[in-house]
């Protein structure tokens, strides 16, 4: 986590301050511009690494920076009535604007003079970036309206220098701590959002990486699963699923000596175990949607920086009438926006809850998106577990009866600090009955509850790393070993509750752990009041005999003596 590397945090602070003083004060604009630069840097580094790997293994690899490139506006556009001669002339004219792709590398342009660098990046490198996957690609479509607005040559030079330093710190950190190269874009994003007081207003705060890993280990996505996040932000959950699958494939292929990270999770971002076929399957498995165009671009770049060449992230409101997908996905992992409500007239007619609260609509929509047998792992505000409104109860009944509600894991309220102090829970459920199916019996037998007390980080605004992993690894181990016959101790951190109890008249589908947990009260023995008073008197005057004490006429000692007389 970013906070645990002060040097890295300091560098990102510097970067943010440079953008602020350079005239880009809107945090999301700043993060978008910083991300473009990070993307340029990462693109060059990944390309060089792939070239080196290909040389080592003898495989063929065509560099993204090999050959020449013509900016789209100068490309020859054929006309139907052109003669061959006119077509040839158009192509010849276009070739005048050819650019050697290698000059578009970060490692090449970073040595330019300030004015030249700004012109080169603005006029050539950035258009090349937008055109990276060809005119027809999803990435190019969403990058169409993206603009590079770093206004001053000096700001660009400073930003390039600082990003180089950030990468150096991260590479050193990676080598020394044996961790996978961190998701730097996520760290920058997290850092920038913590700078603004409005973070989280529309749910745009990142889910901590260790919570995403926890959810991936609970769901265990497999190669071939179609995986979605209907409110994907910068793509953290899709990336979490991808890294889990890559790690499992690496282990199956015989990779050893994988060491757990600081949160106890085993992950590798090395996709060497992926065959070309597996990589193609995986790339076509991840689907994300968001209603913020900036987030869509950030998500696309985030996944591309991690080796997914053609991510499926789209600009869509998944609650609206225009989104018609249903029963499409094997896995849904999400942390949808908690706050706000949607315009009633635009809600998808397939959503039956009769509410405008987005936290409820998203869970119902996720249920609809799942194929039968598909599993969702979703973060919800704890109010969803016990809210008394009709829509709250209807949703919980849907989860218990039409789904196999496997687990409810309550999280401590500090997990999303510094953005929000809201108390949340993870819901894990598998779809059994479709919305229109006639149920023959409720799908849930027992629900496993776990009350997480700690996640390995302090629960204040600083969120600094603590010793150990909190309850993270215990949750995974105990969930996969859950047993209704033995998980019966209601005073423990975790236990199972039968559906019949949850659905009875008394509990009325309440899913809050406090409803079923038995509190244990320890008997505490206190000294007699007289003994306590003697101790207080001694603390005030020291070892003084009773004769001397009687002479004390005022102050707290007098009052303590009177009190002692009173109680005898």
SSE arrangement:
Layout: H1 6-21, H2 27-57, E1 68-69, H3 84-95, E2 99-100, H4 106-109, H5 114-130, H6 138-143, H7 153-177, H8 184-195, H9 209-219, E3 227-229, H10 236-252, H11 276-283, E4 286-290, H12 293-305, E5 312-315, E6 329-334, H13 358-369, E7 370-381, H14 383-386, H15 390-401, E8 403-411, E9 424-431, E10 446-451, H16 472-480, E11 494-498, H17 499-502, H18 529-541, H19 546-550, H20 555-567
Characterise this structure.
The protein contains 20 helices and 11 strands. With 568 residues, the chain is α/β, with parallel strands linked by helices. The model is unreliable at 196-203 (pLDDT under 50). The strands form 2 sheets. Strands 5-4-3-6-7-9-8-10-11 form a 9-stranded mixed β-sheet. Helices cover 43% and strands 11% of the residues. The longest helix has 31 residues, at 27-57. Helix 1 packs antiparallel against helix 7, helix 5 (114-130) crosses helix 7 and helix 18 runs antiparallel to helix 20.
């Amino acid at each position: 986590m970013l906070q645990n590397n002060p040097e890295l945090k300091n560098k990102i602070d510097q970067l943010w301050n440079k953008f602020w003083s350079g005239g880009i004060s809107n945090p999301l604009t700043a993060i978008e511009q910083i991300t473009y630069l990070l993307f340029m840097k990462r693109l060059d580094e990944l390309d060089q690494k792939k070239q080196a790997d290909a040389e080592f293994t003898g495989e063929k690899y065509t560099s993204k920076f090999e050959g020449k490139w013509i900016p789209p506006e100068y490309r020859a556009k054929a006309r139907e009535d052109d003669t061959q001669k006119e077509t040839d002339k158009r192509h010849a004219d276009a070739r005048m604007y050819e650019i050697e792709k290698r000059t578009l590398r970060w490692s090449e342009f970073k040595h330019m003079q300030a004015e030249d660098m700004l012109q080169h990046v603005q006029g050539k490198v950035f258009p090349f970036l937008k055109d990276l996957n060809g005119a027809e690609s999803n990435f190019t479509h969403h990058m169409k309206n993206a603009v590079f607005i770093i206004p001053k040559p000096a700001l660009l030079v400073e930003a390039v220098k600082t990003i180089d330093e950030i990468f150096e710190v991260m590479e050193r950190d990676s080598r020394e701590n044996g961790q996978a190269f961190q998701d730097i874009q996520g760290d920058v994003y997290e850092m920038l959002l913590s700078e603004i007081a409005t973070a989280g207003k529309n749910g745009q705060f990142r889910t901590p990486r260790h919570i995403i890993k926890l959810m991936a280990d609970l769901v265990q996505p497999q190669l071939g699963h179609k995986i979605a996040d209907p409110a994907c932000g910068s793509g953290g959950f899709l990336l979490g699923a991808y890294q889990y699958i890559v790690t499992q494939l690496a282990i199956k292929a015989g990779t050893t000596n994988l060491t757990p990270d600081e949160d106890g999770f085993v992950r590798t971002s090395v996709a060497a175990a992926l065959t070309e076929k597996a990589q193609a399957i995986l790339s076509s498995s991840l689907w994300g949607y968001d209603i913020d165009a900036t987030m869509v671009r950030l998500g696309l770049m985030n996944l591309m920086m991690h080796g997914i060449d053609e991510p499926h992230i789209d600009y869509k409101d998944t609650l609206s009438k225009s989104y018609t997908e249903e029963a499409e996905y094997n896995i849904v992992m999400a942390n949808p926006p908690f706050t706000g409500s949607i315009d009633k007239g635009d809600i998808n007619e397939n959503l039956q809850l009769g509410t405008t609260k987005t936290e409820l609509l998203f869970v119902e929509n996720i249920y609809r998106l799942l194929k039968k047998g598909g599993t969702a792992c979703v973060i919800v505000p704890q109010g969803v577990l016990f809210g008394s409104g009709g829509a709250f109860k209807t949703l919980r009944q849907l989860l218990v009866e039409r789904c196999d509600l496997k687990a409810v894991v309550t999280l401590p309220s500090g997990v999303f600090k510094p953005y929000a102090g809201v108390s949340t829970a993870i819901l894990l459920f598998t779809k059994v009955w479709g919305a229109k199916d006639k149920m023959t019996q409720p799908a849930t037998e027992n629900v496993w509850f776990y009350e997480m007390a700690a996640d390995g980080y302090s629960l204040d605004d600083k969120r600094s790393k603590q010793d150990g992993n909190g309850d993270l690894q215990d949750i995974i181990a105990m969930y996969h070993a859950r047993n209704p016959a033995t998980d019966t101790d209601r005073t423990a951190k975790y236990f199972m509750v039968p559906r019949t109890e949850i659905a009875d008249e008394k509990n009325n589908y309440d899913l809050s752990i406090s409803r079923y947990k038995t509190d244990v009260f320890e008997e505490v023995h206190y000294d007699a009041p007289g003994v306590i008073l003697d101790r207080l008197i001694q603390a005030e005057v020291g070892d003084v005999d009773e004769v001397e004490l009687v002479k004390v006429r005022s102050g707290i000692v007098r009052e303590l003596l009177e009190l002692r007389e009173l109680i005898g």
